[in-house]
Structures are given as structure tokens and as C-alpha cells.
Design goal:
Elements: H1 8-18, H2 25-48, H3 51-63, H4 68-102
Helix pairs in contact: 2-4, 3-4
Length: 115
């Protein structure tokens, strides 16, 4: 059943609920079962966004650093950025998957209007 716009307080309350111990176990199980399909979608989204080309350039740059501390720092930064991008795209995919399954076609409204 479609729902109306979401405000900041609702998002904050939902995020708070997600931090409760054990709250994500069922979701983790479902994601593990769907991992192959989700990996394909994630890779396509990263590719479409041009991230993979930039990533390859960063890998070459990190590997080519002449000093070990510089190389290690560049690799750490690259891994952190890769993690952030994967998480952001993963959240976007999950959000849109939820909307598809819920039959929602409206856009998310994160303003406080109507709160």
C-alpha cells in the first residue's frame, strides 16, 4: 500500500529503530540470499556512474607511489572510498527495490513540510 511523503523525524526514528540489537538479522539473511543479483545491480550502477574508470586510475596511482607510507595511505583512502561508494549505491538500490516492491512511484520528500 503506497505511503505519503516522509519527513526528517520519521527518517530519524526509523534509523534509530535499525540500531536495536538483532534488528537486521532477517534483512541480512534476505540480502545474503539475493547477493548474486544485488552484486550485478551494484556493479552496473557503479559502471553507469563512471566510478569504475576513476577507481582504476586511483588503483594505478596508489600502486605507483614511490614511498611505502604514501602507498599505504593511498590504498587506505582508496578502500575507504570504495566502501563509501558501495554503501551509498547499495542503499540507493535497496531503497528503490523497496519502492518497487511496495508499488510506490512517488518521490521521497525529506522536507519537514506537513510534519
Amino acid at each position: 500500500m503506497p505511503r505519503g511523503p516522509v519527513n526528517h523525524e520519521q527518517v530519524d526514528a526509523a534509523l534509530e529503530a535499525l540500531t536495536r540489537p538483532g534488528r537486521l538479522r532477517e534483512a541480512e539473511t534476505r540480502v545474503a540470499e539475493m547477493a548474486p543479483q544485488l552484486q550485478v545491480i551494484l556493479l552496473e550502477a557503479l559502471k553507469d556512474g563512471g566510478w569504475l574508470e576513476a577507481h582504476e586510475s586511483q588503483v594505478r596511482q596508489a600502486a605507483g607511489a614511490s614511498e611505502e607510507p604514501d602507498r599505504a595511505a593511498a590504498i587506505r583512502m582508496l578502500l575507504a572510498e570504495e566502501t563509501r561508494m558501495g554503501m551509498l549505491v547499495g542503499v540507493a538500490v535497496g531503497w528503490e527495490l523497496g519502492r518497487e516492491l511496495d508499488g510506490r512511484t512517488d518521490t521521497l520528500n525529506t522536507t519537514d513540510e506537513g510534519a
